[in-house]
UniProtKB/TrEMBL annotation:
Membrane-traversing stretches: 180-197, 204-228
Subcellular location: Cell membrane
Primary residence: membrane
Domain called Type II secretion system protein GspF: residue spans: 70-193
Source species: Nonomuraea polychroma
Keywords: Cell membrane, Membrane, Transmembrane, Transmembrane helix
Name listed for the protein in its UniProt record: Tight adherence protein B
Membrane topology of the entry: Multi-pass membrane protein
Domain of life: Bacteria
Length: 238
């Protein structure tokens, strides 16, 4: 029995080492994320699929679109167009996750309405930071008379820096996330190895009350560990 236990421990250690050796490194993950920024976002080429995206991916899409909007608006203003015309052209040039949400902004910019209020109303709760900052810039420009182009360019620079920080944090968290998934899968691997060694672990787990209690407790603890790791990673990414 001691020899069998030693074999199981050795097998688990070998599997863990192979996982860590072949798993993605932080540098590899960061390189993939940086190169992915130059590819066309998936939600643009598959608009029907976007509605099934997670809230995190939807917020990410809004952030990227907001950066593009600020860059396009800054370019239009630098070309000498009026703020309303520049915003209308900039919105038309950017593929937003929900184009219908931008219609009040275009209407306000075209008809001389309250653009700042329209930007605030159209900004989603998650991922709408760029639109809210752009609304503040528009309000300051209208109220104080400050140069809108300079304000928009500063907002675009801030949004780009924040996006780069989120990507860096996500790359740094890739290793811990992979380790957490590996640790969550190790109990199942242990059961398979025990069964291969003719230890009949399922007979104990499913055939007796103490074994079933151990099984339920293990599953709950495993799920809680994954949930807690995911929550900490989400908080770290902001």
């Amino acid at each position: 029995m001691v020899t069998d236990a030693a074999v199981v421990v050795a097998a688990l250690s070998t599997a863990s080492a192979l996982w860590l050796w072949t798993g993605p490194t932080t540098a590899t993950t960061r390189l993939a994320k940086l190169t992915a920024d130059h590819r066309e976002p998936r939600w643009r080429s598959l608009p029907g699929l976007f509605t099934r995206q997670s809230p995190g991916r939807r917020a990410q899409a809004w952030r990227l679109a907001s950066i593009e909007l600020c860059q396009a608006l800054s370019a239009e203003l630098s070309a000498g167009r009026t703020p309303g015309e520049a915003l209308t052209r900039a919105v038309a040039a950017v593929d937003f996750p929900d184009p219908a949400a931008l219609r009040p902004i275009v209407a306000a910019a075209r008809d001389g309405g309250d653009v700042a209020a329209a930007l605030l109303a159209s900004a989603p709760p998650q991922g709408g930071e760029g639109l809210r900052q752009l609304a503040a810039c528009w309000d300051v420009s209208v109220t104080v008379g400050a140069g809108l182009a300079a304000l928009v360019e500063r907002v675009a620079s801030t949004l780009r820096a924040a996006q780069a920080h989120r990507q860096d944090v996500a790359a740094q968290l890739a290793g811990p996330r992979t380790t957490a998934r590996m640790l969550a899968a190790l109990p199942a691997l242990g059961l398979l190895m025990a069964a291969a060694l003719n230890m009949h672990p399922l007979d104990f787990l499913l055939g007796s009350l103490p074994g079933f209690a151990c099984l339920v407790t293990g599953i709950i603890l495993d799920a809680c560990g994954l949930w807690w790791t995911s929550r900490m990673a989400a908080r770290a990414q902001g």
